[in-house]
Amino acid sequence: MATVFGGLKKLAVVLVALASVNSAVAANWVHLGESSDGSDKHYIDVESVKKLPARSSYPYAYLSASNSGQIVSFFTKRDYAKAQKTADGKFYNYTKEQWKGDCANNKISLQGYIDYTKGGSVVGSAQLNYDDWRTVYPETIGENALHAACLLAGYRSTL
């Protein structure tokens, strides 16, 4: 279970301030929280948040039925306190993940990830060519990431 430092109100203030600043294309990582055991810290790249075009049909019924059109894309980063190991034995210290989020239905879908060493070398990656929508649960890092992305995209006015 993940814990959040400073609460959602503090995160909302930071995100609103960052959204109003017109900055360069570089990543702008904002801390979302960390695991309860301190094994990893989570961040969202506020510069990566993008509205995705509404589509008339999705592969999952809940999207087809709602046709919310409130779909966003965003990147997160997970820093590990201790190096992790890939299936083939390579060590990595952080992971960057791309997500798709449904702001109207509180669901997210992992699109892909890249695992990096402390020095920035890539040791593993995956690209998912399908949507695997999952509900985000209250008081989790997933909820914080989705709410932040939806706020930055203009689909929510508060966290």
TrEMBL record:
Keywords attached to this entry: Signal
Signal sequence coordinates: 1-26
Presence of keyword Signal: yes
One Pfam family named in its UniProt record: Adhesin_E
Residue span, Surface-adhesin protein E-like domain: 29-150
Protein name: Surface-adhesin protein E-like domain-containing protein
